[in-house]
Known about the structure:
Strand content: 5-15%
Number of strands: 17
CATH architecture of the largest domain: 3-Layer(aba) Sandwich
Largest sheet: 7 strands, parallel
Low-confidence stretches: 1-5, 7-19
Mean pLDDT: 92
CATH class of the largest domain: Alpha Beta
Strand order of the largest sheet: 1-10-9-6-2-3-5
Bound molecules: fructose -6-phosphate
CATH topology of the largest domain: Rossmann fold
Number of domains: 3
Radius of gyration: 26 Å
Amino acid sequence: MTMLQYKEIEYKPAGQFEETRCEKIHNVIFNSSLDASKVVAAEIAQLIKEKAQQNTTCVLGLATGSSPIKVYEELVRLHREEGLSFSNVITFNLDEYWPMQPDDLQSYNHFMHEHLFHHVDILPENIHIPDGTIAPEEVYQYCVDYELKMKEVGGLDFQLLGIGRTGHIGFNEPGSHINSSTRSITLDHLTREDAAPSFLGLENVPKKAITMGISTIRKAKRIVLLAWGISKAEIVQETIEGGVSSQVPATYLQEHENTTFVLDREASDALTRIKTPWLVRACVWTDELKKKAIFWLSEQLKKPILKLTDKEYNEYGMGSLLVEEGSAYELNIKMFNALQHTITGWPGGKPNADDSTRPERSTPERKRVIIFSPHPDDDVISMGGTFNRLVEQGHEVHIAYQTSGNIAVSDQDALRFAEVALSLNPEAQNIKEVIQTLVSKGTNELDTLAVRKLKGEIRKAESLGATRYFEVPDAKVHFLNLPFYETGKVKKDNLSERDVQIMKDLIESVQPHQIYAAGDLADPHGTHKVCLDAVFEAVGALKRAPFMKDCWVWLYRGAWFEWQPHEIDMAVPMSPDQVVKKRKAIFYHQSQKDNVMFQGNDAREFWVRAEDRNRLTAEKYRALGMAEYAAIEAFKRYYF
Ligand code: F6R
């Protein structure tokens, strides 16, 4: 199978998908955004080469944002290692913030040069990016000319797109007309919130942009839209399955005859054929799918599992499951028990108990545990109750903070601490310098090393406050400061051998029976994803070490997203008192309270989110027919 077959085999014009009666846009789902990006880059590379063979230019419409980064990385690799030339390529970028200086770190001009243009042999005169410095009275004519230039070179052969959570393509926000062309547009609040982290605050995000229009985009001969991650799942579903509407501008692509949406698993999560496949096709009933379907049915009918009937299974597309399992009665009991057996108050295993139906082993009684926490607060936010239990139940618990989390401390907080430090030692020159830098720091300016160090120390002290509260000795608290994070910018480096080595060293020295890691991939900067990759790589590299035979890996979620009941392998209930104790531990992370810098798409404070999610999981268990708990923390086992 060649890399390009996704297009050749699976492409069918809209309205002709057999098993996907709900879908109106051709889409393909990949296991990872990396695999997907390579396939898209291969399609672009092939097009460039075909055009070169025909001695003609290849006109590409390009996007910025997080989605296309790996496509550009792969194109750069193809240029460097396989001789792909961009000498016949002409590019037009979708959009640019307005006003915006081209060399500003946040400008799309800077982005494109950093990720692609600086690294390939494209001719500078062939690069077109809307100009964010254009005077207001000239914007209109500028946009007309941008369109004309595209037309003069024969129109776009290929348009790469991302999708915003508002359903925008380019910066065509809800309300955009199907006939719109390149123009100035006011950005939606949600779009500006999503951009806020890279501008270090919402107030710094421009309110306007210049964008290609819907009609400009739809004139492209081929369109590929990329969407990664759970935060895109809902808008992807609305776009692919909903009706065409100016409220979701990406739905205009339903009427384009050569568009493919390229998705990773998470972004496809809300599509009917993924979320409830039994409604649209015959299914192979794996254990996980059975759970998913039955818990879904129970939720739809608002009935606990044990009350579901044969008739209801048949009515909701699960007749084949009944045929496999016998009857609703037997199936219900089996599923009820499976769910019941995920619940334990002994996350490290219950000593001297029969563990055949428990999520964890009863031996060894005292386990060595490492809790990996991407930022210095995810441990308590996402699994504070379980963390506390593990310590109280006598296990040797190590906490490993993977990154320093320094960029998430505000300048005001840093200044406050620096001033206290200076009051204790009024002569300290280095503290005076830090104060001076903070006071004179301009918007968008990067922190100096000294300021980053101070911010890191603030988070370290907060973490120690929380771990001491849970009575973990300081010697068991590890600050790994993984190098990939230490760029001083929102944009981080890729994971390197050095990061993985640091992780491996800790795992080898502790030789844990349990590793907990954040499987919560929806954080706004992708740090959790990199931290999880670091865990997977370290565990993968060590898997032949004898001690690893006894090591189980548990993934937690919570700060941004939660496991759903069918995904949960271990559910640790909490009493109301334990909920309060967890809350207090989270409160130690004062720099992340109230005016948190990187709020993401959720306005609630972290402790509120955590409590809501833990309460919701308990409610879901209750609705499925389990006992009623105040809160539940949930874990999924990762097999390596
Ligand atoms: C970027 C653009 C936008 C982004 C969209 C998704 O040039 O026009 O439409 O594609 O906002 O952004 P990411 O990929 O960062 O999620």
